[in-house]
Amino acid sequence: MFTKILIANRGEIACRVIRTARKMGIATVAVYSDADRDALHVEMADEAVHIGPSPAAQSYLVPEKIIAACKATGAQAVHPGYGFLSERAAFCEALEAEGVVFIGPKPKAIKAMGDKIESKKFANAAEVSTVPGWLGVIENADHAEKIAGEIGYPVMIKASAGGGGKGMRIAWDRSEVRDGFDRARSEAKSSFGDDRVFIEKFVVDPRHIEIQVLADAHGNALYLGERECSIQRRNQKVAEEAPSPFLDAKTRKAMGEQSVALARAVDYQSAGTVEFIVDKDKNFYFLEMNTRLQVEHPVTELVTGIDLVEQMIRVAAGEKLAIKQSDVKLNGWAVESRLYAEDPYRNFLPSIGRLTRYRPPEEGQFGDIVIRNDTGVTEGSEISMFYDPMLAKLCTWASTRLEAIDAMSEALDSFVVDGIEHNIPFLAALMQHPRWRKGEISTGFIAEEYPDGFAPVVPNSEERAVLASIVTAVELLRRDRLDRLGGRLAPHSGALKRDWVVKIGEDYLPVSIIEGMVSIPMEIDLSIDGCKALTVSSDWRPGDLIWRGTVGKRRVAAQIRPVANGLRIAWKGMSVTARAMLPRTAELERLMPDKVAPDTSKLLLCPMPGLVVSIAVAEGQEVKAGETLAVVEAMKMENVLRAERDLVVAKLNAKPGDSLAVDAVIMEFA
Fold first, then answer.
1. What's the whole-model pTM score?
2. What is the pLDDT of residues 178-209, one digit of tens each?
3. Known catalytic membership, residue 627
4. Which of 153, 355, 455, 553 is in the most buried spot, having the most CB atoms within 10 Å?
5. Alpha-carbon distance 446 to 32, whole Å?
6. Alpha carbon of 197 to those of 133, 141, 504: distances in Å?
7. Is the Cα torsion angle 455, 461, 466, 467 positive or negative in sign?
8. Active-site annotation holder among 87, 240, 288, 410
9. Cα distances (Å, whole numbers) of residue 555 to 127, 155, 358, 398
């Protein structure tokens, strides 16, 4: 067994590998760029080596720097994590030439499966079911249009060396092929240094289901069940679960056996994933094989009890698998939510900045529930524009699917992140969505259910009562605390007021205190909007970021943050401003004029912090609705900004190469 390994990665996956290596008694070496000098993975590792500037192309993607770090520290093996160099056969060969073990498959398997075009050809030869498509060289956009027409729309345009949703576009008709081809090639070139793309039939309403395989160098190979990864946005996974709520035992077995056969055909030796798209009739088609550890591997670990990173290390060290196919049992259900640094209210555009607060829910087993959080950041970490926007992978396990989902819902409500925008509100709303809870999903779920983007969930009458109860309880304690301050001539509040009004958004709800006193812990009976009294119980104290308690028979964990004259409450995808006040105050507040937002209709604002890739117009140019104005790159994704109406460009305020902050003015219109 190795005594020291180097992790050629960063963020949460580097931290994840370090945890398992530490458990196995193996010393670890971290590598870091300028941007990651103070990163969590650097702090966790036994040693750390600086490998260059912040851009990945000058640090994490330079094999020579990784090899030099191995030589300098005496690392015997390298775990590549995912992304970066994890699927580069040349990197694997370079390590072997230096006597360093690559913790992953051999170059033969990487070459056979790592290239999407070649993997399709290989899968066809091995009689694996594949999607109809064109696997040859696509010369230009005209050629792409011709191929797409022959296959039949819709088609998927994908980077051959792609991954993570980058270099991927769907074209629903001929008009979308050319732009999709150009964007896919451009993203592929900038992300992977390889602009080859291929085209295949896009299966309508597919489910994305993948099989985890594990194989050693002694001819042993097995599958560890499946993961459902259908909740995707821009072809990037958002939430995953194991097992799939869609598969039956027969289909699971067939997919698993086919995946193992493919792994054997390329002499696969490590953990790997065979991805399929599955139609409504449970017909499945090979999509690709990821010759590395998947981002969503924790859900498989939770339902099988098998540490995949440990197995990868043991296989790389030459050990035989100690597990047989008959040993693999799927126990319970696991759900994973990917927490991204992005603004769900601005079409999920990236967000950067410092984490002024980062307080995940407590990890461990709590009764019949398990909570796990794989992360690579901590409070105070800087989220930069150079890398993937993922902050953490929050996972829950329970004996049933709905119990795991409910546990995830409460864990998300308890996950505090401040300083940047993040997608927790969307994830929390997803956990309540009827289609998700029923398992009636496809890869088009987000586009279908949120066609106009995500907006805060509007509370119903029962939820408004919960929110009103929280803000009333908090206000009562706030006033009681003021009354107890020393040096006051008279109490601030006087005797307990029984009648209140709570404003939630633009609604005013009368609240009456039926019974109870102000104390910690608190238990009071409230009547909301004239309805039957609810018992509200909580041990919340002023300063706590999470209000925990019960409202009626409902358990509640909601995040509260003070705002001017009230609270901002985040709960189950809702984000509301609420204020508890006396009836006379509410009467006067109704007379206050509304604040009018500034007019930005004649400005093109940068929707996210990013780099201007191109400006497609000139000053004085007339532009039609839908035409491209500019392309902005953020966190390796290119975002096309289009005209929302016919207009004339009056002034350009930015040029290609400019680094812009959110809401920076790119151009002005006449």
1. 0.84
2. 989 988 888 888 777 888 888 988 888 899 99
3. no
4. 355
5. 35
6. 12, 11, 51
7. positive
8. 288
9. 52, 46, 23, 18
